[in-house]
Amino acid sequence: MTSTESTDVLIVGSGFGGAIAAYHLAAGGAKVTVLERGPWLESKDFEHDYLLGSSYTRIFDFVVGDGMSLLGGNCVGGGSVVYFAAMPRAPRFIFERKGSIGRRMWPSTINRDTLDPWYDKVSEALPITKQDWDEVTYAGGLFAAACNHAGRTANPVPVAIDTALCTNCNWMMAGCKFDAKRSLLLNYLPAAIAHGAEIRPMHEVQKLTRTDDGGYRVSYNVIHDVDYRVSVGSGEIDAKIVVLAAGAGATPVILQRSEDTLGRMPHAVGRYFSGNGERLNTAIIDEDKARDLLGLSREDDLSYAANQIGKGPCVASWDNLDGSLPEFSRFCLEQLYFPPGFGTILAQTPDALPGAPTWFGAEKKKIVEQWQSWLTIFSMTEDDNEGVFGTPPPTGNAIRISQQMLGRGPIRYNPTENTLFGWRQADATVKAIMEKDGLSKVMPWTNDVVGAYTVHPLASCRIGDDPETSALDDRHELRGHPGIFVTDGAAVPGALTVNPALTIAALAERAMPGIVRALQERGVDVKYGAPSPDGETSGRRGVRQLLPDLVRD
What we know:
single chain; alpha/beta; FAD/NAD(P)-binding domain; seven-stranded mixed beta sheet; six-stranded mixed beta sheet; 13 helices; 21 strands; 23% helix; globular; cholesterol metabolism; FAD-dep_OxRdtase; EC 1.1.3.6; EC 5.3.3.1; steroid metabolism
């Protein structure tokens, strides 16, 4: 059975781009409906296991493409529920990048200075704090000590974590049971609901159609709450404005599927995809060397053996985030926790014999048994935006292979020499740090099994000044399709060399005044200028200077 409803704003997705839009537009007086394809789980629902059918497989979306695999959130709160809450700001040089197009990728109106007030708003809303060294985990401390031993610097990473509530259980990737991780379930989304926004989980948007009054009709399927391959209903909602925030792996697919009803899409829809230049290297620490070289020790005569204790990324080395370096040679190195059997199982065995398997077999089994002595280093480099989305699947963003989580998607990714150069530079630096004086053996990531890998997909519908290379204008409105806005990671022009969550959120905050104006032009009585979700107002000061006619006290 199909039913048609109406709303002022239809938001697709409830991650950073969707939740921020839902809060500001609902608080401003608009009728807001949010469709989220995943389930609505709370802290009591998150399970400390990685078994099939647990909260872990319900809230993740793992899409295997051709040369690239994408891991993202699939739940109310989106990526904020499964992220590690590392929230650095993008370096100043990022906004001047030229990338594959040979000219500035970002809109001329956006640089680090103009984005800082929006960074401030998000930092207040979550909030974001800088960790002290006494809050850094064993793994973070080991990485910092290794960097120091190799003549490099390291720093605690700013995070959206309440350290008073954190138990250092290291299960935050599967959702935080203790509400220590400041996901959107704790701020923007409850504030949006308090202002009347409606959130509907298990609703997967399929396509958009234009209505006679200049708005849009959004068609969706209702997904079975256990088997995501099964639809148990469908419907349509008419809206004056549509905000797409389904993620960089899904937003372009929705638009591509809608081309037969909406008309031609901008050339950049589904092109220029970036995996944020990401790489994983896992070091197998020699416990005796860690003690002798770094002076580390803890109980039971161990020096480390604590890979599983703590939380996600706590320490990063930013020495290569130097704007004077050539493009594609700048990167960040960050200590990270991935559980054995997940991503790190695809790391290559170091010193394998000629002709022997590098990512499975007896030698791999042997090193997996040492998993407590692992240290995973996450590299974020500058890639070349070479990802392209092919023909969209009949429904959703991927062809579902299993009941939950796993799908086969239309992304194609063939890394250019620029991207490969950046990966080699980062890999070599990790090896130089972690293998200095025999501290460890590094298992590099292999692309042989599932291709490159990203947990931070970006840029598949990016903002920009050039209509040929950007799908959106600098207000995040889809070119040629007024009233459709994109506020998720798809809008970010390219790799950031740092974790992108804060930049995605800041750009979403920046897009809100323009969306409010678009609603006003369509006759909706809506205002802009709500305080931070917890009622704080200091974050509005910088924004008020930018928009004195729009921000109210």
